[in-house]
Amino acid sequence: MSLVSDAIWAASPTTTRGQATPLSSDPKGERIAYAARFDLALSGKSIFLRSIDDPAVSKQYTQHTTQTTVARFSPSGFYVASGDVSGMVRVWDCAGEGATKGEYPIIAGRINDLAWDGDSQRIIAVGDGKERFGHCITADSGNSVGEISGHSSQINCVSIRQQRPLRAATGSDDTSLVFYHGAPFKFNTSLRGQHNRFVFGTAFSPDGSVFASVGADKRIWLYDGKTGEAKNQIGEGVHTGSIFGISWSKDSNRFVTASADQTVRIWDPEAGKAIQTWRMGDEGVVSVPDQQVGVVWPTGRSDGLIVSVDLDGNLNYLVDGNPKPTRVIRGHQKNITSAAIAGSTFATGSYEGRVLAWDTTTGLADKVEGAAHTSYVAGITTSDSSSGKELYSVGWDDTLRSISAPDKIFTGEAHDLKFQPKGVAATSSTVLIPSSDAIAVYSKGTQVSSLAVKYTPTSIAAHGTTVAVGGDDKLVHIYTLSGTELKDTETVLRRATSPISALAFSQSGSKLAVGAANGKIYAYDASAGWNLITDRWSAHTARITCLAWDESEKYAASGSLDTNVMVWSTEDPGKRIKALNAHKDGVNGVAWEKAARVISAGGDASVKVWTVKASSRLFEGRSNTESEAGDSFMDNSLASDHPHLLPMANPPHFDRNSMMHHSSDSQNPRYLNSPSVTGSDSEWIVFQQTTSSPMLQGYNQSVYSFSAPLEPPSLLHQAASQPCPRTTRNLSTSSDYSQFPVNNIMSRSASQFSTMSSGQHAHGYNTIQALRGSFDGASPLDMTRSYSSTSDNPETVNQQPSVQSDFTSPNWHTGGQFAFAPQVPNQHTTAGPSAQYQLDLNNNLGIGNGSRNQSLDWKTHTTDYCLSNMPNYEPYLGIRLDSALLLVPMDALGRT
Q: Where is the composition biased (Basic and acidic residues) (predicted)?
């Protein structure tokens, strides 16, 4: 099984009152790019690329290490340049998997804006620096191609003419614009007197004939695009608030502006008049959240769509001729702090008190209308009644509110709690809210009882008349509801070793999941005397923040501050599937929408949908100790009765040096039997994992080994009767493949290899090396083989099959991960198949022949694999698991 990302319901653009919010569109007009940063420490390090036509489809870039500020598509549409508050600019692939192309420090401060040249080769980045306020670099190397000078205060905006001769313009808090010639870009003239307050936006027309500037003085100025000469001011007095954004139509005949006066206007530069106006909010009412702080007119579209962003972060879709937005896309601008699901509504609450209701069928959100929370939403829950139409929320404004899920509205009055809530749980008739020293019971909005406690409650869950409360005393206290009175049953669950941080009952109430601050999860059987089901759910490395059970009650989903989402099984507690780095700043909510769909919400202000599906992987690896974070699900197809999953009771362990042959004569290595194997000439290759790596997180640092013969069934017995050939070669360190991504390699051979020229041959045994522990590529494995025509010395028949030394791939550097498989003979003759296997960046395993007469520097790690002869001399891959040996026919890899 695997947890596959199905959708990202993106955060809204970050906005700040009095500042422009840059928006960018790709050349096709299909996506917009923007930054999502928050006013919280260590939060908001994402860039979102969001589909315009289907806003529920987006891509998230999370490689910035500080809060992001701006993102711009390149004119080619293949790359995005994004900046952050540290002055770093990253250039990354937006057409593929989001790989970072370059990371360049520009200034010692916040990046406010970016611009690309028409060739997608040069970038100007500007902002609030110390020694300088901007710089011009090449996109591929970060080399300097000019200087940005002439300003005495931070630069807010920049634009580059897309035609030659290249020109650029910047606008600043010093009220001036500077015009540059390039490339390399250099100061040409300072344009002063046009604006008398901050300049917030500047933009060249697509044909390069003119550029315009806007600012806090509500003025719009036009300039000659080639000379920089100021031409004229238009629309004086039309906008009544600061103008924060400007964008041109693709025909260069019109441009659009966005203003704090709550309007977006289309202008005819020749006539100097506004030809279309949209005003957001209620007519005649001044509304700060409706201030328009950014705008983009996507090129490449035929519908003339304009997208603006207001101070609340809402994206407004505007079409010429329609007086109102045709669509409003909403999301969170702050960390999502709590979540719950009721039918097809997924409700989320955030740090600033906003509550949104997401339609799980469309992935779009609506604001829950009514008297909202004014501070941190500490909890959202739904009652355990069958209707599931009512939600309850509590916040650090010390209020309790009811929400109608179908109507997406707060109902009734806000109820003053007179204490800060630690969470919330609900039954069909009551709402339970813990404080620092008591548990209050509410019914119909009125507090009806309270139970004092001697510990500090940290979490709460309820089902029917049973209430579980977790405390900072590392205990789970079980209570029962008698009417509206909460009574102590004196049942205490004591398994946890750190404060309780999350609780969740299954839908029937028969199971309780308990999450702790140290990342461990415990499952209890509430219907059988609170017996412990498992305490092995222990792969998280930080506080458990949320838990949820699926309908079958066999699986539980968990979220943690470690950024990961995991799904656990009660039937096989050692199994799990995981979505690593699911939410950049921690996971704060999980829910099951249906049997195989998990929804999560987190500190990155986004909501993500995950599909639980059968994996194409053969295995994902397991550690020898249950406490290791490397435990993971085996594929469901590998059941205990799988014909190639063989039990290993007390598997023998031995030093690898007793297995590996180091011969000084590479042409005639001696045949070696394992000293631990008797009664046959069989041998299994043993690898040792020497250390941890990014690919091996959580693996036990110990010798992994297996040997043969093992106990029946006969398949393994037959396998043990056949040799496992290998060839010894010397691995030289004379050539350091430093550009090769060695961190992506999982294993190496424990034997030494000698470098040989193409066409030479060695006799003896082959070893498999650098084979990654999964095969999850879309392409099937091609087992086509080419055969060696060289004959060996007849004396070596049945012991030393011939092999070719050309084991490196001609596509060595284009594939991200390399795997060399041994040449396994199809019979005991002097000729055998010669094959090289390569695992590329997409994890597709292919086969082919190649030659490279260079020695290799293997700086990798080892684990348990063996490619062995099996009955009829077919190649098999042997994989050592905790208590079993998985033997996989190599020709079956493409079918799995």
A: 653-664
Phi/psi for 489 (5° steps) reads -90, -5
Sheet holding 865-869, edge to edge: 645-647, 884-889, 875-880, 865-869
Q: Give the tokens for residue 616.
A: 């194409």
Burial of 240 (0-12, 13-18, 19+ CB in 10 A): exposed
Contacts of 808 (CB under 8 A, 6+ apart): 818, 820, 836, 850, 851, 852, 854, 856
Could you identify the residue written with the tokens 């508050």? 85
Single out the residue of 26, 327, 294 nearest to residue 156, CA to CA.
294
CA 144/CA 160 separation, integer angstroms = 16
Question: Percentages helix, strand, coil for the chain, rounded to the nearest 5?
Answer: 5, 40, 55
Contacts 24+ apart (CB under 8 A), 876-880: 876/644, 876/719, 877/768, 877/771, 878/684, 878/706, 879/618, 879/619, 879/773, 880/648, 880/651, 880/704, 880/705, 880/706
Residue 855 has pLDDT above 60, yes or no: no
Phi, psi of 358 (to 5 degrees): -95, 130
Residue 301 contacts residue 322 (beta carbons within 8 Å): no
72 vs 78: CA distance, rounded Å: 11
User: Taking a C-beta distance cutoff of 8 angstroms, is the pair 679, 671 a contact?
Assistant: no
**Distance (Å, whole) CA 444 – CA 446:** 6
Q: CA angle, 490 as apex, 487 and 493 as ends, to 5°?
A: 120
Instruction: State how far the Cα of 310 lies from the Cα of 304, in Å rounded to an integer.
Output: 20
Cβ neighbors of 460 (< 8 A, separation 6 or more) are 422, 423, 424, 425, 432, 433, 434, 439, 467, 468, 469, 470, 503
First to last CA, the chain: 12
Tokens representing 286? 């001044």
**Assigned token pair, 122:** 């040069």
Distances (CA, A) of 507 to 246, 504, 548, 550, 568: 52, 9, 9, 8, 16
Domain at 495-633: CATH code: 2.130.10.10
pLDDT (0 to 100) of residue 62: 94
Give, for 516, the enclosing helix (H) or strand (E): strand 511-516
Residue 410, strand partner residues: 403
Looking at the whole model, is its pTM more than 0.90? no
Count of other CB atoms within 10 angstroms of residue 478: 19
The DSSP-derived string for 305-371 is -EEEEETT-PEEEE-TT-SS-SEEE---SS-EEEEEEETTEEEEEETTS-EEEEETTTTEEEE-BSS
DSSP for residue 408: T
Q: Rounded to whole angstroms, what are the CA distances from 478 to 463, 489, 531?
A: 11, 6, 13
Instruction: Please state, in angstroms and rounded to a whole number, the distance separating the CA atoms of residues 633 and 809.
Output: 32
Could you tell me the residue ranges of all domains in the chain? 495-633, 665-792+799-828+838-858
Task: Give the C-alpha separation, 691 to 697, whole Å.
Answer: 10
Give yes or no for a contact between 551 and 592, defined as CB atoms under 8 angstroms apart: yes
Q: Which of 30-39, 484-493, 761-770 has the highest mean pLDDT?
A: 484-493
Mean pLDDT (the chain) is 75
619 pLDDT tier (thresholds 50, 70, 90): very low
Between 545 and 849, the more confident residue is 545
Interval 252-263 mean pLDDT: 98
d(CA 9, CA 609): 8
Q: Cβ distance 433 to 421 under 8 Å?
A: yes
* % of the chain surpassing 90 pLDDT: 64
CA 139 to CA 103: how far, in whole Å? 9
588 neighbors 335 (Cβ within 8 angstroms): yes
Query: Residue 519 carries which DSSP code?
Result: S
**Contact partners, residue 745, CB within 8 Å, separation at least 6:** 695, 770, 772, 817, 818, 858, 860, 861
**Closest C-alpha to 11, from 43, 815, 28:** 43
